Amino acid sequence: QVYVAESGGGLVQAGGSLRLSCAASGSIFSINFMGWYRQAPGKQRELVASLTSRGSTNYGDSVKGRFTISRDNAKNTVYLLMNSLKPEDTAVYYCNVKGVRGFGNFDDWGQGTQVTVSS
């Protein structure tokens, strides 16, 4: 079993910053992909940022230049630094982790963390 837990959400004023963390734990052999997605009320879940084991990053168009994804391999943790936050960044942010565990591949999600940006 692999567990994924996000933290770091909260309420922030427009123009402010937050850093989200996502830690994966359990019987993990290797992690190939760690990504952040978000879902606002009435909207579909969308990719915010992702990072592969080879170091390739991908960002959603709306966050390019403002958000930065990084990873601590030793801790199986991925971070999302969010700068210049806008009210439209308000959403529940979810972490997705893919990799190999003791008995095959895994593809797990966290419960999500709320980010609210006030104008």
Give the key terms:
seven-stranded mixed beta sheet, mainly beta, four-stranded antiparallel beta sheet, 119 residues, elongated
> What spatial form do the alpha-carbon principal axes imply?
elongated
Q: For the CA atoms, what is the radius of gyration?
A: 14 Å
Runs in which pLDDT lies below 50 for 5 or more consecutive residues are: none
Tell me the fraction of residues in β-strands, as a range.
over 45%
Major β-sheet profile: 7 strands, mixed
Query: What order do the helices and strands follow?
Result: EEEEEEEEEEE
Tell me the span between the first and last alpha carbons.
41 Å
Mean pLDDT: 97
Q: Count the strands?
A: 11
Structural class: mainly beta
Total helix count?
A: 0
Polypeptide structure, described:
There is one protein chain. The chain has 119 residues and is an all-beta fold. 0% of the residues lie in helices and 64% in strands. Strand 7 and strand 8 form a beta hairpin. The chain starts with a strand and ends with a strand. The mean pLDDT is 97.
Layout: helices, strands, pairs:
Layout: E1 2-7, E2 10-13, E3 18-26, E4 28-39, E5 46-52, E6 57-59, E7 67-72, E8 77-82, E9 91-101, E10 104-109, E11 113-118
Parallel strand pairs: 2-11
Antiparallel strand pairs: 1-3, 3-8, 4-5, 4-9, 5-6, 7-8, 9-10, 9-11
Short overview:
The protein is mostly beta strands and 119 residues long. It contains no helices and eleven strands. The strands form two sheets. Strands 2, 4, 5, 6, 9, 10 and 11 form a seven-stranded mixed sheet that branches. A four-stranded antiparallel sheet has the order 1-3-8-7, with no helix packed on it.
